[in-house]
Structures are given as C-alpha cells and as structure tokens.
Amino acid sequence: MNYTQRVHRLCKKIPKGKVSTYGRLAKKLNSGPRAVGQALNKNTDPQVPCHRVVMSDGSIGGFNSGVKNKITKLSAEGILVVDGRVPPSVITEV
DNA sequence: AGGGTGACCCGCT
DNA sequence: CAGCGGGCCACCC
Questions:
Q1: When you count CB atoms within 10 A of the terminal residue's CB, does the N or C end of chain A come out lower?
Q2: Is it the case that residue A33 has pLDDT exceeding 80?
Q3: Which residue has the least CA–C1' distance to nucleotide C8?
Q4: Which nucleotide is at minimal CA–C1' distance from A22?
Q5: Residues A25, A36, A50, A86: which is the catalytic one?
Q6: When comparing pLDDT for A39 and A94, which is higher?
C-alpha cells in the first residue's frame, strides 16, 4: 500500500464530528507533516474526508477550492467552526 | 536522476 | 509575544 493510501485510510478513521491535525497523523504515520499534506492534496476521493484534517492550531488551512467550502463541510459534519478554526475539543488523536 | 513544490511543525532570535 | 528560518517526508515535472 502506498503512503498516500495509508494517509487516506487514517482520514477515514477520523470519527464523525471530530477532526485531526496533519502533525498528529504525520506522527502516526511516522512521517513528516508535509507528506500528509501532499497525500491529501493529490487525493480527490470523496470517501476521504480530508476536510476533517486541520492544522495543529485548529486552523482549517487553505485548500480545497476555498477555505469556506471546507468550513461548510465541517459544519455539515457537526463540527463547530469559529473564525475559520475548530475548538480543541473536536480534535482527536484518531 | 535531480530539483522544486506543498494543505506543516518545532526551535531560535 | 511575534517573526523568521530550518527540517521533516512524499509526489510531480
């Protein structure tokens, strides 16, 4: 299995209503945070909720055809987004 | 095969 | 406390 697929699988592991951070996943994957971003960047699979992945600060980041779109998705998932960021309560260690 | 990029993180100044 | 630089890993050209 490619590294990218492994990242995708981890994203799917993220429980609904919760989010994870690039650094967290990177540590789980024993890799660098940038690698996670690359994998998700190339990933356009609807079954991979890359929007559930945020920065260590809870910031959404800036991708996916617009941050607003990502925030909308997160809100649809039941994740509270405040000022483009999510509270640490929704950040899970997966 | 080599260089550059990307949705980052940690440390120092 | 805020700003800057370096390091991390994988993928594309």
A1: N
A2: yes
A3: A32
A4: B8
A5: A50
A6: A39
Any catalytic annotation for residue A50? yes
The architecture that CATH gives domain A3-90 is Orthogonal Bundle (1.10)
Neighbouring-strand partners of residue A59: A85
* Residue A4: band (very low, low, confident or very high) from pLDDT cuts 50, 70, 90: very high
Range A57-68 average pLDDT: 80
Higher pLDDT, residue A70 or A62 = A70
Sorted by where each begins, the domain ranges of chain A are 3-90
Name the residue with the least CA to C1' distance from nucleotide B10.
Answer: A23
